[in-house]
Amino acid sequence: MDAKDILGLPKNSITQEKKSRPQKDSQRKPDGISREVYALTGGFPPLIPAIEASQLKKRPPSDEKITWQWLPFTNSARKDNLHLYHWVRIVNGVPPTGDYSFAKYNKSVDIVKYTDEEYEKYLTDPMWTKEETDQLFELCQSFDLRFIVIADRFPSSRTVEELKDRYYSVARAMLAARAPSPGDISGHPLVKEPYNVSQETERKRALSMVLSQTKQQERKDAEVLAEAKRITESRMVARGAEESELPVPSNAGPESAERAAIPSDTVSPSANVQHPSAAVAPSTITVDNASILASLRMLRVYLRTYALDQMVQAASSSAGLRTIKRVEQTLQELGVNLKPRVPTKAVCAEHLELRREILTLLNLQKQEAEGSSYRDGSYGDTPGTPKHLSHGGDQDRIFVPDMNFAGERIGKRDQKRKAPGRLSEAPLPAHKRPRKLKAADL
Amino acid sequence: MINSSSSKQVGQDQQATSEPRSPRPKIKMVKSEESDKRILNKKLKDVEISIPIVYGNVSFWLGKKASEYQSHKWTVYVRGATNEDIGVVIKRVVFQLHSSFKNPTRVVESPPFELSEAGWGEFEIAITLYFHIDLCDKPLTLYHHLKLYPEDESGPMSSKKPVVAECFDEIAFPEPSEGFLVRVQNHPAVNVPRLPTGFTLPPPVPFEDANRKKRGDTKDHPLSQWFMNFSEADELLQLAAARQQVQAYLAKLRRQISMIDGQHQQLKTISDS
Question: Which residues in chain B have their CB less than 8 angstroms from residue A275's CB?
């Protein structure tokens, strides 16, 4: 406001503020619930209102009489007949019936029970005494087969796997003993999938090893897997290029996928060939055009656009990202579609050649510009004296003062000033001459 | 030179390979590739046949009859680029629609390979082409984004003129079987390259497909008036012009560099002496 005073702007802007503020308020206030409650939902109206705002104030239904009473209750899940009190919602003078509502959650597991004779007959084991087995079963009963807890509470130190093994073998033996015929219990999970101690110990050990792998180990594993994948891929290329029968690579697909634990998605027979990102072609690492063609031939069928993408990728694999962008920019300047609109074989071939030529042109320009920039650098000081003679890196030319310091520039492109790759402007010697002379005059 | 090495190879192949289907073995033929100058003379090129296709959709706004969930009536299809019958190559097409459609997997068993539906939303349709078994037993999938709304969002929607989105592509079969070549050697939908001299195919046996009772080409299709034109010649001209320009710049640049080099050499000799 002070600024406006200083600037001498009209003062009616204050009244404008006051007017806009109440408008905003009424816009934001919801109806039906207080503003703070509304703010809990995020403060903004949801896209689809889950609860009608009016609903929040509507209840309760008016024709019922609701009272609350402090009444005693019992819990059928308890064994000690404890009487406690709690608030009960009475509707029209009728208290609710039924058991305590949480009693139904008192579930427990049915543990196998054996008598002493049965123990003598079926369950004796050299590794386990009767005492220990009895203790185990007591704990199982009280802790609902939570073996981790049971192993913790077990008086003598036994591993979780040992306890599980003992319990399940006892249960299986009891089942077999009590069943009228062996066929009856053959479907029971205890019989069908018996607990395998050694397998379980091994599995848990492997899991803990994986969990405790350091980052370094993880990286090494990933590297090894990637290397193995690359080796299988290159083997596939070699095999496919030699053989004349096409079905072999695709048949080898499922086998190789199972053979190695390596995810060799490159040889899956049902892979969709067209999508460039599917990378069905054996190797995108090789740059050679001939190998791209070989890999294309290995596919039974492919789309022309896919083939073009592969070749373009191969051609530009030697160039950096910036160069690729410059190629695309040049294509656009020439009025050529980046992806040909009618990709026939001939069109794709022409497109590829055009890309290659542009790449050559850009590389040549870059080379030339580097050379010229060295030369330009020398003219920044005094004309005729060569500076930085040691900059021989990229150029084969010997650094000799050029006659051009007073004469004409032969179309050098100033890479530093202008965006690279501008084909549309021709080099203008006259344009550049005055600038360089000024620098030289200093 | 190419011919002599090829005949040797052809002989080898005839001994080595055997085809279960046709009586003669799969013969590899030589074809010169002008665009690929790096290919060694020894390497063989096969006869690659290609089928130019166009796939896409045409969508009509229903105007007054539009409801919230059915605002457009659209047809997605795959057709031959010159509207010829591609049923000789493609056995069936499966269109996988958005899961909100009932039975989103739609199978079309005979040409014209198209599917019409009504809806309101744009989504990606997966079009899987299944070829005749003697040609290729692997399917090929294309992806097309259904276009219902025109590019110019602000303009009025007309229920007379549809929104058309088509895409051109070519399906290439690098090593077709001889039986298939025989079948399609003169079919207008298939591009068969020129066979090398000395190689002849037996006369074609008429192929009867039980499914194809109605005509499969789309020349007189009701939607054919909206089909887009894809002219290879235009694109080739454009590319040729661009290439000429680039080549001219390249030549000019090379001349300049050689001039500078020449000057350098001149100065060097002057300063050295």
Answer: 141, 143
